[in-house]
């Protein structure tokens, strides 16, 4: 139920007095209510749940998070820290 | 898709899991509140790459699962009325009421329709002015803005034939109910990312302080969940208890102020019964006075409803984190997604459905079943 999917805003317009838009989810385009994120611009990303944009995606913090993730564990590998005894090799999804 | 695939990298996930192994020196029990996170954890096998001492307890964050039986029965009664178009998210149609479900009512001739968004139901009301259009408005705070906007627009546009059967539940009172229970084992929480996209996380610091538990706002992709767990473990190991945000790309401290303003206008706080758990004070929303004419519970007299739960179903224990789904004797036997005894086996977010659909079928040793059945 609380699944919300990131999509890119393609078009912004008004319908029945409400701010609406076309949002592209990896090729599937749906009409989405943008009333809660009126500041959003065409080309930006938003998190969408049951037809409503809940928040704009903060691109800078997304990049920062990914950069942190990618560095994670690399230092330990570099300095040759032993594998924790209970690690399951190849266990990642 | 952008912002999804990057957060599913298997190699990075493995390194993050190793970080968690390095940080962990003791056993910890962490609850992920949201059913969406439960599904991601089981689907991606995240629980299987964690240190053996880290237990993930699956929380009650599945709105379909906790919608009270009496309200499902009410929905069934309203849906069966002549002239009603009953609209719902697809998840609700197979949820068992006392004697049938919405699919059965539909097959008996009722006009039951699955919609993607509550706005679809508002549009149906506009297109069918002589019909009563009822939307089954269930959900946590994530779905609140959509349901609030639907009622608000219906009122604004004078669509008197639109009403909503509201079953809205709130996360912070549920967390407090879990923490204040004498049998609580949860030592830390992964706070539900999208609930916090709407509400922010300003409600959580007092809970962290009062109960001395860490809470980490966490997203839904595998790397997001691993990061939530990693930060939680670091706090637990250091003996700290504060709120952290591990889902900054979609969550701010304040949340979405515009959404919160409309939520406060359309809804008011009410007590709620959670299916399988019981009454939790001030744990839900109902329509406020100004919108009550759109409340389906007020509009339709549904008379006396005598509810009857399945005697075999242990979904209440599953929702409270006492019982793992595959430790239930009915799991995979009398109870499957095709023939569910309880809502946790129906919903795309129910813990039982997650275990069944992703192959966690091994049933528990007899001793574990016996132990888990202690109240």
What does this structure look like?
The complex is a heterodimer of chains A (93) and B (375). With 93 residues, chain A is α+β, with helices and mostly antiparallel strands. Helices cover 19% and strands 38% of the residues of chain A. Chain A has helices spanning 59-71, 74-78, and strands at residues 5-15, 18-25, 28-33, 45-49, 52-56. A five-stranded antiparallel β-sheet of chain A has the order 3-2-1-4-5, with no helix packed on it. The longest helix of chain A has 13 residues, at 59-71. By secondary structure, chain B is of the alpha/beta class. Chain B is 38% helix and 19% strand. Chain B has 16 helices and eleven strands. Chain B has helices at 10-23, 35-43, 63-66, 69-79, 102-107, 118-127, 144-156, 171-180, 193-199, 205-211, 222-238, 257-266, 296-299, 315-319, 351-357, 366-372; strands at residues 28-34, 54-61, 84-88, 111-114, 132-139, 162-169, 188-192, 215-218, 243-245, 267-274, 278-287. In chain B, the strands form two sheets. Chain B has a six-stranded mixed β-sheet with strand order 4-3-5-6-11-10, with helices on both faces. Chain B has a five-stranded parallel β-sheet with strand order 2-1-7-8-9, sandwiched between helices. In chain B, helix 6 runs parallel beside helix 7. Residues 364-375 of chain B have low confidence and may be disordered. The chains are: A alpha+beta (93), B alpha/beta (375). The interface between A and B is large, with 51 and 72 residues.
């Amino acid at each position: 139920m609380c699944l919300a999917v990131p999509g890119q805003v393609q078009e912004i317009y008004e319908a029945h007095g409400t701010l609406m838009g076309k949002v592209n989810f990896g090729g599937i385009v749906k009409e989405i209510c943008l009333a809660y994120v009126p500041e959003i611009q065409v080309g930006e990303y938003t998190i969408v749940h049951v037809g409503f944009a809940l928040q704009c995606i903060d691109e800078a913090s997304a990049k920062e998070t990914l950069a942190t993730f990618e560095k994670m564990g690399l230092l330990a590998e570099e300095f040759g820290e032993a594998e924790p005894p209970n690690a399951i090799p190849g266990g990642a999804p | 898709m952008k912002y999804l695939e990057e957060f599913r990298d298997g190699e990075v996930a493995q390194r993050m899991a190793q970080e968690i192994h390095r940080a962990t020196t003791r056993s910890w029990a962490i609850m992920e509140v949201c059913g969406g996170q439960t599904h991601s954890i089981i689907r991606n096998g995240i629980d299987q790459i964690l240190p053996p001492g880290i237990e993930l307890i699956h929380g009650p964050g599945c709105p379909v699962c906790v919608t009270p039986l009496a309200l499902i029965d009410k929905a069934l009664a309203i849906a069966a009325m002549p002239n009603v178009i009953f609209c719902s998210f697809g998840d609700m149609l197979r949820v068992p009421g006392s004697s049938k479900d919405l699919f059965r009512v539909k097959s008996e001739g009722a006009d039951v329709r699955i919609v993607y968004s509550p706005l679809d139901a508002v549009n149906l009301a506009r297109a069918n002015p002589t019909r009563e259009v009822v939307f089954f408005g269930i959900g946590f705070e994530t779905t609140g803005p959509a349901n609030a906007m639907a009622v608000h627009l219906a009122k604004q546009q004078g669509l008197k034939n639109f009403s909503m059967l509201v079953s809205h539940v709130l996360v912070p009172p549920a967390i407090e109910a879990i923490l204040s229970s004498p049998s609580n084992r949860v030592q830390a929480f992964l706070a539900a990312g999208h609930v916090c996209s709407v509400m922010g996380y300003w409600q959580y610091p007092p809970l962290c302080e009062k109960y001395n538990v860490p809470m980490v706002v966490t997203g839904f992709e595998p790397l997001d969940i691993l990061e939530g767990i990693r930060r939680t473990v670091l706090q637990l190991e250091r003996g700290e208890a504060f709120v952290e945000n591990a889902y900054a790309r979609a969550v701010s401290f304040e949340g979405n102020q515009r959404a919160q303003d409309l939520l406060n206008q359309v809804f008011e706080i009410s007590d709620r019964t959670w299916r399988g758990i019981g009454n939790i004070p001030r744990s839900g929303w109902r329509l406020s006075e100004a919108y009550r004419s759109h409340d389906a519970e007020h509009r339709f007299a549904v008379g006396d409803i005598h509810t009857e739960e399945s005697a075999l179903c242990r979904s209440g224990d599953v929702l409270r984190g006492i019982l793992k789904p595959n430790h239930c004797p009915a799991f995979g036997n009398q109870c499957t997604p095709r023939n569910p005894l309880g809502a946790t086996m129906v919903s795309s977010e129910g813990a039982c459905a997650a275990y069944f659909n992703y192959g966690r079928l091994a049933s528990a040793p007899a001793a574990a079943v016996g132990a888990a059945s202690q109240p």
